[in-house]
Amino acid sequence: MRDLDVSPYRAAISQRRERIHRVALNLFQQFGYHATTTLDIARAAYVSRGTFYKYFPSKAAVILAHVQPLIADLRRHVERLLHEGVAPPDVLDALCNQVSAASERERTLIAPLVQEVLATDAGDTFRRAATSPLMNVLNVVADALHERGLLREHVSPRQVSTAMMDSYLITVLRWNPDTSALSFRDAWRLNLDMLLHGALRRPPHA
Predict the structure, then answer these.
(1) More confident: 118 or 43
(2) Where is coiled-coil annotated (predicted)?
(3) What is the pTM for the complete model shown?
(4) Residue 3 pLDDT exceeds 70
Protein backbone atom coordinates (compact mmCIF):
# COMPACT_ATOMS: atom_id res chain seq x y z
CA MET A 1 0.00 0.00 0.00
CA ARG A 2 1.34 3.40 -0.98
CA ASP A 3 2.15 5.64 1.99
CA LEU A 4 -0.07 8.67 2.23
CA ASP A 5 1.58 12.06 2.18
CA VAL A 6 0.59 13.51 5.55
CA SER A 7 2.81 16.60 5.36
CA PRO A 8 0.03 18.93 4.05
CA TYR A 9 -2.25 17.67 6.84
CA ARG A 10 0.40 18.31 9.46
CA ALA A 11 1.09 21.73 8.01
CA ALA A 12 -2.61 22.60 8.20
CA ILE A 13 -2.74 21.50 11.84
CA SER A 14 0.33 23.57 12.68
CA GLN A 15 -1.06 26.62 10.90
CA ARG A 16 -4.42 26.32 12.65
CA ARG A 17 -2.76 26.00 16.05
CA GLU A 18 -0.56 29.01 15.35
CA ARG A 19 -3.57 31.06 14.25
CA ILE A 20 -5.51 30.20 17.42
CA HIS A 21 -2.43 30.97 19.51
CA ARG A 22 -1.82 34.33 17.83
CA VAL A 23 -5.47 35.37 18.02
CA ALA A 24 -5.71 34.43 21.70
CA LEU A 25 -2.62 36.45 22.63
CA ASN A 26 -3.94 39.47 20.75
CA LEU A 27 -7.28 39.25 22.56
CA PHE A 28 -5.58 38.87 25.95
CA GLN A 29 -3.48 41.96 25.32
CA GLN A 30 -6.37 43.98 23.91
CA PHE A 31 -9.19 43.08 26.30
CA GLY A 32 -7.46 41.32 29.19
CA TYR A 33 -7.01 37.66 30.03
CA HIS A 34 -9.97 37.36 32.39
CA ALA A 35 -12.35 39.27 30.12
CA THR A 36 -11.55 37.02 27.16
CA THR A 37 -13.39 33.71 26.94
CA THR A 38 -12.49 30.61 24.98
CA LEU A 39 -15.59 31.29 22.87
CA ASP A 40 -14.21 34.75 22.04
CA ILE A 41 -10.96 33.16 20.92
CA ALA A 42 -12.69 30.49 18.86
CA ARG A 43 -14.89 33.00 17.07
CA ALA A 44 -12.00 35.35 16.33
CA ALA A 45 -9.93 32.44 15.01
CA TYR A 46 -12.85 31.12 12.92
CA VAL A 47 -12.92 27.74 14.65
CA SER A 48 -15.33 26.01 16.98
CA ARG A 49 -14.84 26.04 20.73
CA GLY A 50 -14.20 22.31 20.54
CA THR A 51 -11.41 22.93 18.05
CA PHE A 52 -9.82 25.41 20.44
CA TYR A 53 -9.75 22.76 23.17
CA LYS A 54 -8.29 20.28 20.71
CA TYR A 55 -5.16 22.43 20.56
CA PHE A 56 -5.16 24.09 23.99
CA PRO A 57 -6.73 22.57 27.13
CA SER A 58 -7.20 26.04 28.67
CA LYS A 59 -6.54 29.74 28.19
CA ALA A 60 -3.52 29.41 30.46
CA ALA A 61 -2.08 26.80 28.10
CA VAL A 62 -1.96 29.47 25.40
CA ILE A 63 0.27 31.65 27.57
CA LEU A 64 2.42 28.66 28.51
CA ALA A 65 3.01 27.97 24.83
CA HIS A 66 4.12 31.58 24.48
CA VAL A 67 6.56 31.75 27.40
CA GLN A 68 8.16 28.31 27.16
CA PRO A 69 10.38 29.19 24.16
CA LEU A 70 11.46 32.35 26.00
CA ILE A 71 12.47 30.30 29.03
CA ALA A 72 14.29 27.80 26.81
CA ASP A 73 16.35 30.69 25.40
CA LEU A 74 16.99 31.90 28.95
CA ARG A 75 18.31 28.50 30.00
CA ARG A 76 20.69 28.37 27.05
CA HIS A 77 21.93 31.85 27.96
CA VAL A 78 22.48 30.89 31.61
CA GLU A 79 24.31 27.69 30.69
CA ARG A 80 26.50 29.57 28.22
CA LEU A 81 27.49 32.13 30.86
CA LEU A 82 28.39 29.40 33.34
CA HIS A 83 30.34 27.52 30.67
CA GLU A 84 32.29 30.71 29.96
CA GLY A 85 33.26 30.91 33.62
CA VAL A 86 31.02 33.77 34.72
CA ALA A 87 30.62 33.73 38.51
CA PRO A 88 27.27 32.25 39.63
CA PRO A 89 26.19 35.43 41.51
CA ASP A 90 26.73 37.39 38.30
CA VAL A 91 24.77 34.77 36.37
CA LEU A 92 21.96 35.18 38.89
CA ASP A 93 22.03 38.93 38.25
CA ALA A 94 21.87 38.35 34.50
CA LEU A 95 18.97 35.94 34.96
CA CYS A 96 17.10 38.47 37.10
CA ASN A 97 17.67 41.15 34.49
CA GLN A 98 16.32 39.05 31.62
CA VAL A 99 13.35 37.60 33.51
CA SER A 100 12.45 41.03 34.89
CA ALA A 101 12.54 42.65 31.46
CA ALA A 102 10.29 39.91 30.05
CA SER A 103 7.94 40.12 33.04
CA GLU A 104 7.47 43.86 32.56
CA ARG A 105 7.09 43.54 28.80
CA GLU A 106 4.66 40.59 29.02
CA ARG A 107 2.87 41.60 32.22
CA THR A 108 -0.61 41.30 30.69
CA LEU A 109 0.15 37.62 30.03
CA ILE A 110 2.43 36.54 32.86
CA ALA A 111 0.44 38.03 35.75
CA PRO A 112 -2.75 36.09 34.88
CA LEU A 113 -0.70 32.92 34.40
CA VAL A 114 0.79 33.26 37.88
CA GLN A 115 -2.70 33.86 39.28
CA GLU A 116 -3.83 30.63 37.65
CA VAL A 117 -0.82 28.76 39.05
CA LEU A 118 -1.54 29.93 42.59
CA ALA A 119 -5.31 29.43 42.42
CA THR A 120 -6.58 26.99 45.03
CA ASP A 121 -8.30 24.86 42.39
CA ALA A 122 -5.26 24.60 40.12
CA GLY A 123 -4.24 20.98 39.63
CA ASP A 124 -0.76 19.71 40.42
CA THR A 125 -0.20 18.71 36.79
CA PHE A 126 -0.90 22.24 35.60
CA ARG A 127 1.26 23.77 38.34
CA ARG A 128 4.20 21.57 37.36
CA ALA A 129 3.75 22.34 33.67
CA ALA A 130 3.61 26.06 34.36
CA THR A 131 6.50 26.34 36.81
CA SER A 132 8.91 23.57 35.78
CA PRO A 133 10.56 25.39 32.84
CA LEU A 134 11.63 28.39 34.93
CA MET A 135 12.31 26.21 37.97
CA ASN A 136 14.74 24.15 35.89
CA VAL A 137 16.67 27.31 35.00
CA LEU A 138 16.75 28.37 38.64
CA ASN A 139 18.02 24.90 39.54
CA VAL A 140 20.95 25.39 37.18
CA VAL A 141 21.94 28.61 38.95
CA ALA A 142 21.39 27.16 42.43
CA ASP A 143 23.52 24.12 41.56
CA ALA A 144 26.29 26.43 40.35
CA LEU A 145 26.16 28.40 43.60
CA HIS A 146 26.44 25.13 45.52
CA GLU A 147 29.32 23.81 43.42
CA ARG A 148 31.26 27.02 44.02
CA GLY A 149 30.76 26.67 47.76
CA LEU A 150 28.61 29.79 47.95
CA LEU A 151 25.77 28.19 49.93
CA ARG A 152 25.90 27.70 53.66
CA GLU A 153 26.27 24.13 54.88
CA HIS A 154 22.67 23.73 56.03
CA VAL A 155 21.20 25.03 52.75
CA SER A 156 20.47 22.81 49.73
CA PRO A 157 20.36 24.00 46.11
CA ARG A 158 16.68 23.04 45.90
CA GLN A 159 15.88 25.28 48.85
CA VAL A 160 17.58 28.15 47.05
CA SER A 161 15.84 27.58 43.72
CA THR A 162 12.50 27.26 45.53
CA ALA A 163 13.16 30.58 47.28
CA MET A 164 13.97 32.14 43.91
CA MET A 165 10.72 30.86 42.43
CA ASP A 166 8.64 31.91 45.44
CA SER A 167 10.14 35.40 45.39
CA TYR A 168 9.40 35.69 41.67
CA LEU A 169 5.77 34.61 42.05
CA ILE A 170 5.30 37.01 44.97
CA THR A 171 6.72 39.87 42.93
CA VAL A 172 4.53 39.14 39.90
CA LEU A 173 1.44 39.18 42.12
CA ARG A 174 2.30 42.35 44.04
CA TRP A 175 4.15 44.54 41.56
CA ASN A 176 2.17 47.21 39.73
CA PRO A 177 3.95 49.56 37.32
CA ASP A 178 1.43 52.32 38.05
CA THR A 179 1.86 52.34 41.82
CA SER A 180 5.25 50.81 42.59
CA ALA A 181 8.22 53.08 43.25
CA LEU A 182 10.53 50.23 42.24
CA SER A 183 11.15 48.56 38.91
CA PHE A 184 10.14 44.92 38.66
CA ARG A 185 13.78 43.88 38.90
CA ASP A 186 14.43 45.91 42.04
CA ALA A 187 11.22 44.65 43.65
CA TRP A 188 12.14 41.04 42.83
CA ARG A 189 15.69 41.40 44.12
CA LEU A 190 14.37 42.91 47.35
CA ASN A 191 12.06 39.92 47.86
CA LEU A 192 14.77 37.48 46.78
CA ASP A 193 17.40 38.95 49.09
CA MET A 194 15.02 38.67 52.04
CA LEU A 195 14.26 35.01 51.28
CA LEU A 196 17.92 34.14 50.68
CA HIS A 197 19.20 35.98 53.74
CA GLY A 198 21.34 33.52 55.65
CA ALA A 199 21.44 31.03 52.76
CA LEU A 200 24.40 32.49 50.88
CA ARG A 201 27.91 32.77 52.22
CA ARG A 202 29.00 36.38 52.44
CA PRO A 203 32.47 37.55 51.46
CA PRO A 204 34.69 38.49 54.43
CA HIS A 205 34.34 42.23 53.78
CA ALA A 206 30.51 42.11 53.62
Answers:
(1) 43
(2) none
(3) 0.87
(4) no
Going along the chain from its start, the domains and CATH numbers come out as 1-56 (1.10.10.60), 59-196 (1.10.357.10)
**Average pLDDT of the chain, as a whole number:** 91
Q: Is the CB of residue 157 less than 8 Å from the CB of residue 146?
A: yes
183: left (phi over 0), alpha (psi -120 to 50) or beta: beta
What residues contact 49, with CB distance under 8 A and at least 6 apart?
Answer: 38, 39, 42
Evaluate whether 20 touches 52 at the Cβ level (below 8 Å).
yes
For residues 172 and 164, what is the distance between their CA atoms, to the nearest angstrom?
12
Phi, psi at 151, each rounded to 5°: -105, 145
Flag whether pLDDT at 190 surpasses 70: yes
Residue 138's alpha-carbon distances to 86, 103, 167, in angstroms, are 16, 16, 12
Greatest alpha-carbon pair distance for the chain in Å reads 77
